[in-house]
Amino acid sequence: MERELTLTRNSPGDMLREMMGLRNSVTGLFDDFFSGRPLLARGTDTETGWNWSPAVDIRETDDELVIYALVPGVEKEEIQIEIKDGALVLSGSRKAPAEDSGWLRREQYYGSFYRAFSLPAEIQQDRVSANHKNGVLEIRLPKAEKAKPHKVKVL
After folding, report:
1. pTM attached to this predicted model
2. Cα 69 to chain center, whole Å?
3. Within 13 A of 16's CA, how many CA atoms are on the CB side?
């Protein structure tokens, strides 16, 4: 009995998404190792088994560090920010929609996430602020006076 084999080609977008997933997995292993959190403690999407974590941009000025985390669909009550041992820990979760059937394609990830960042300078912990607007979490971390650059006048 002969069977016919049907080849299905992925679109370039699917292949790119798979490569990005692999890159994120490898990057995540390094993040886990150097962050001090338990290895493989990332959030996992229950349907796909993939991990997800919010993309971030980090900016440093003379006076502060600013972290922008992309957290669309994450309610502010579901976000935790902690500063300890010279690191900022960002964790939380995004809930899946209640509709469980009828999906033709699902590419968004749901479940818990965890990110940890070493802080390159001492900060004023009592002045840290966070704002959640339009799916972007902005965390402002003012530097301690002794961490700010100081100019020395040459005599």
Report:
1. 0.65
2. 6
3. 3
CATH number of the domain enclosing 20: 2.60.40.790
Q: Are 76 and 91 in contact (CB under 8 A)?
A: no
H/E segment holding residue 74: none
What is the reported pLDDT for 65?
94
Task: Give all strands (DSSP E) within 3-121, no chain letters.
Answer: 56-60, 64-70, 79-84, 87-94, 111-118
**How much is the pLDDT for 41?**
45
Classified as helix, coil or strand, 106 is coil
Q: Which is it for strands 64-70 and 136-142: parallel, antiparallel or unpaired? A: antiparallel
> Which structural domain range is residue 51 located in?
14-94+111-147
Contact 96, 110 (CB under 8 A): yes
Q: How far is it, in rounded angstroms, from Cα 7 to Cα 80?
A: 45
Task: Give every residue of the chain whose pLDDT is below 70, as ranges.
Answer: 1-14, 28-51
Query: For residue 143, what is the DSSP state?
Result: B
pLDDT at 11: 61
What pLDDT is stored for residue 141 in this prediction?
Answer: 96
Confidence at residue 39, expressed as pLDDT on a 0 to 100 scale: 47
